[in-house]
Amino acid sequence: MGSSPPVSSHRRDVEINHELDNHWLTLTTWGCHNLFMMKRIETQDHADLFARLTEVRSAALEHYKIAQSLARERRLIIEQLLAEGFNQSDLARELGVTRQAIQKMVAVGQADPASGRR
Fold first, then answer.
1. Cβ(32)–Cβ(38) under 8 Å?
2. Radius of gyration of the chain from its Cα atoms, rounded to whole angstroms
3. At residue 22, does pLDDT exceed 80?
């Protein structure tokens, strides 16, 4: 008896790039990715949607990094203004927010978990 190649419902003409953009954070067990548990991409429309999902997710991660950087910069500016004699109420009044919001702005961006710096 000759052996025949395995049959797969996955179309070979539809390809998706599966690069990890957040190393080690999205890994799951192998069982979730085997042929019996995973719906396959069957059309080019599906492939296009997954490609767009990947682009949107990548953009969201980039924007999150930018937001973190801006939060740190905002904290440094607030700390500089506080050091120059302004109080939190002064800053809150100028920005049109509450004093508690200023406290949160100072707290966000204080700890940098990647470097351990404050």
1. yes
2. 24
3. no
Distance between CA atoms of residues 108 and 56, nearest Å? 25
What span, in angstroms and rounded, lies between the C-alpha atoms of 96 and 74? 15
The pLDDT value recorded for residue 14 is 47
DSSP result, 17-84 = ----SSTTSS---GGGGSTTT-PPP-SHHHHHHHHHHHHHHHHHHHHHHHHHHHHHHHHHHHHHHHHT
Query: Which of 3-7, 25-29, 43-47, 55-59 comes out lowest in average pLDDT?
Result: 3-7
DSSP secondary structure code for residue 86 in this structure: -
From residue 24, give the alpha-carbon distance in Å to each of 21, 28, 40, 50, 54: 9, 9, 23, 20, 17
pLDDT in tens, 44-75: 999 999 999 999 999 999 999 999 999 999 99
